[in-house]
Amino acid sequence: MRIDIITVLPELLVSPLGESIVSRAQRQGLVEIAVHNLRDYAEGRRRQVDDYPFGGEAGMVMKPEPIFRCIEHLRSERAYDEVIYTSPDGVRYDQREANRLSTLQNIIILCGHYKGIDHRIREHLITLEISIGDYVLTGGELAAAVIADSVVRIIPGAIGDEASALTDSFQDGLLAPPVYTRPAEFNGWRVPEPLLSGHAARIAQWQEEQSLERTALLRPDLLEKL
Ligand code: ADE
Fold first, then answer.
1. Which of 75, 154, 177, 213 could form an SS bridge with 207, CB 3.0 to 4.6 Å?
2. Taking the domains of the chain in order of start, what are their residue ranges?
């Protein structure tokens, strides 16, 4: 899989995509992530990527030319399954969408900034707008990092323990059961007995009950969806 991210602040993506599982997945050749500085596609001495909005409101709008140039350049090299724009107006991101994106070959993520992007980009280039939640970030980079991270970690082979990504919270529409490690007793608090039983079926049953209980308590909306 290949993920191309277009941004005016490439530095913001270095650390989130350069550590741990995401970094290892790139080294293993499971995913290629390319970050493009939009200014490299801007013209003029100032390499301007934004301009005043028509209509006179406050704030700046990202200009169409550099974004068209950048995306057309990428498209001349390969076909893309989705051209994503990160925006609070987008469809709410969730695990199901992360799973779907992880099955695609090539995606572009355009990070929004300032007051937004010229609407012609949304009409003619963008195939999918994604919001990571009902709040406003200063830019789309953190949203792009969230999307890339959640997609990469479920590519088969990215997580050492293959089963682990499949038992995440949300993978079956439920919250994950509690997990414990050694010692079996700490400060007088014991790890629940079924986990210490060594009996696979009992452990699985306990985990399933806990999943349902925690989901009903903390996220009853998820149970309604099921
Ligand atoms: N850009 C600003 N806020 C955002 C959000 N909530 N989701 C995605 N992109 C954004």
1. 177
2. 2-152, 169-225
